Amino acid sequence: MALILLFQGLLFGGKTWRDRSMPIGSAAARAHGSFRRRTMEAATADAAADLRSDFLQVLRSRRRNPDVPLCVELGKPVKNPMYQSSIFPGSKEVMEACPKENVENFKERLIEENIYLTTEEGEQGCLPVLILSLKDTIPQRKPAVVLLHSSYKCKEWLQPLLEAYASRGYVAIAIDSRYHGERANSTTAYKDALVSSWKNGDTMPFIYDTVWDLIKLADYLIQRKDIDPSRIGITGESLGGMHAWFAAAADTRYSVVVPIIGVQGFRWALDNDKWQARVDSIKPVFEEARIDLGKNTIDKEVVKKVWDRIAPGLYLQFDAPYTIPVIAPRPLLMFNGAEDPRCPVPGLNEPLVKATELYKQANCPENLKFIAEAGIGHQMTVSMVKEASSWLDKFLK
């Protein structure tokens, strides 16, 4: 049974502020309160814009011609998808639990598109995209959902989710993240790219490079005649959850956000000696850094050096306490396993308290929800898939 944690942080220690020099209910007090709210809202909006600008600058800093025109090329279905690790038993069945409409002649009505978008120059600047939707008798703009795979998988892995959302009237989109799927040339491509990033400092394959792709993907999606540009959701599992989180922080066109087992406090993990599980998930790059730094073991200094090199600002200005709150007031549902060592729940206290205050200021506290599922580690569950589906339907349909 899920343990639901809904953070309701209060400013000023939970007390209601007012200027006691003014009579309660007076016009002056109401005007003062209204002015103060507007001032706080403006300051919050400015801070969010500054953070997005700073993050975009970091993303652009390692692009090969970031201003390359957005080109679309037709592709073909992938017959033998690339997987870089063994598949967790039962994980396919978890995705198949996503609610699916009983559509007559579903397979005949299902439209599959395979395309490539140019997001920058170079081989990794070719973004493979898989899109599923239902053929309509009358053309209409639909809600869209971007679905993002976890480490070492690919867009084809998400077929059950793509079909489920397409059956319910969505345009369902999946991509191969950097050095995955069609963008991988071996079963060690992602790990090799991380090591190369440490060595050369010219790419950011951990989270950031794919976030750049997702910004470019949004450029494309809002131009499609079958998508309502105001109704584009984004969700993902594990690494895909991180991609969803950071893409939504960077780009407000993602209007509903559901990261699944992806959000963590990177600084909190360093300060509380809880970084080991995350490091173990991509250990080769940390081992390479350990050797280069002349260390006998991987320690906190090694971890910080790696993050600084491959994802600048990850445990500093772009960490969860800053990038989760800027998603407000857009609907945000986050899932973690209560026992997940990679994304420890205590590390989310600060970002959740900050985000809760902003959602309250925007008069939409119901748009923020965090669920830590009891007894679950780093694993997406059936209940997460179903809750995510309901959340997206609630705000996109």
From TrEMBL:
- Decide whether keyword Iron is in the record: no
Q: Which residues form the signal peptide?
A: 1-18
Q: Which Gene3D superfamilies match?
A: alpha/beta hydrolase
A Pfam family for this UniProt protein?
Answer: Peptidase_S9
Instruction: Tell me which stretches of the chain form a coiled coil.
Output: none
Q: Which SUPFAM superfamilies match?
A: alpha/beta-Hydrolases
Output the InterPro entries linked to this UniProt entry.
Answer: AB_hydrolase_fold, Peptidase_S9_cat
Domain (Peptidase S9 prolyl oligopeptidase catalytic): residue spans on this chain: 165-378
Q: Which GO terms describe its molecular function?
A: serine-type peptidase activity
Q: Which UniProt keywords apply?
A: Signal
What PANTHER family does its record include? ALPHA/BETA-HYDROLASES SUPERFAMILY PROTEIN, ALPHA_BETA-HYDROLASES SUPERFAMILY PROTEIN
Q: What is this protein called?
A: Prolyl oligopeptidase family
